[in-house]
Write a structure and sequence with these properties.
elongated; 8 strands; homopentamer; about 5% helix; about 100 residues
């Protein structure tokens, strides 16, 4: 899994039938220091993530292992909202301090 | 999923038998600002996308989760045509204004 | 899928039992302008491609969705021989003019 | 598989239901000389790895082939703790000497 | 598949239960000219490869399509030992001349 920040939304009215009802969010990829790497992903949202939240997302076939995305043509899913990251003994992200 | 612009078509008369009838489109990859990244993908079209349209495409095993591509040797599929992208509170792509 | 040019062959007498009979070809990756990118892939040949031909290849689990490669430890397959590529309204590759 | 060093932990209270109970560790990717490459992964821990340990991790669908991660939306798993690496005839990592 | 040279071994006593008995080899990735690219992979050995040999390895779910790796958390497998590579009409690797 990699870290991303929910940066936006994407609307697509014409799509593969099985995708209807799925919410797509735009993620900016983050490195371990919380900086944007320049990369992005559009991912289905399985956890009700909001704009600005730091999330964990899975890609590949793992992205279909949620009720919402099962057997759908989806290769990225937000599967967790991050509360706290601790790296090398220091807290590098604490959601309660950000919001 | 990543964003792409439909840039062209590809014809292949000799191909794996199960692929007959599948339409292949050439996609130029886009970044979040809508600029071409220099990368590309050839993808099966599951939604009837047209040249110039901005689309969402999935890769890997997800690309076989459409009726059209089920159990076929296909690792990329266009699964949605994008109407609107909003990033950091601003609309960065609006199909109705482009066309 | 990505574009490749069949650049050579590879012989391997000692291999996983299920691979016997599979033909491996060496592909040089191509960009949309038909230039070599410097990357390569060794892929199983599902279509009878010849040296110098421009082909479409699939990677990952898609590479096992052919009769030849089904349930074999193979992560790349040539699934189509390209006849024509048209990008941005211009023909960028036409097999009939090359050969 | 690639080599990583367990650098930290990640807490996520809101996550896909099937993930509850899974422990996520933050891995810094290592090259063959044991240097950090700058890349990272968040992976599920299937072996009880501790901070500072050098581990082997698998990505993609392989990450779901453990009891802990079976059919869960998880694309990275620590599946072994490394004791010894020998490259080009020299021991490049020996856990017993580090700890 | 990509080309690699078997550069070493890796010992891991604590690992996911299903992995016991699997031999892990350290591969240095090779380009088509036989030069090391700087990349590496740790892969399960399905063919009895020896140090210094040039091999073909598969990644992703393909790595589980051998008897040895079936349903194990393994994302890389050596599935063939290379005898001969011919690129652009010239032999670029011939095992019988190296050893």
């Amino acid at each position: 899994m990699l870290l991303g920040k929910v940066a936006g939304t994407l609307v697509a009215s014409r799509k593969e039938a099985s995708l209807s009802g799925l919410k797509f969010l735009v993620l900016k990829q983050l490195d371990l220091e919380g900086n944007e790497t320049g990369g992005y992903r559009v991912a289905a949202d399985a956890v009700g993530a909001g704009i600005g939240e730091v999330v964990l997302y899975a890609t590949g076939s793992a992205a279909r292992q949620t009720e919402m995305t099962h057997e759908r043509p989806c290769d990225g899913v937000i599967m967790a909202i991050v509360d706290l990251i601790e790296v090398d003994g220091a807290v590098t992200y604490d959601k309660s301090e950000v919001s």
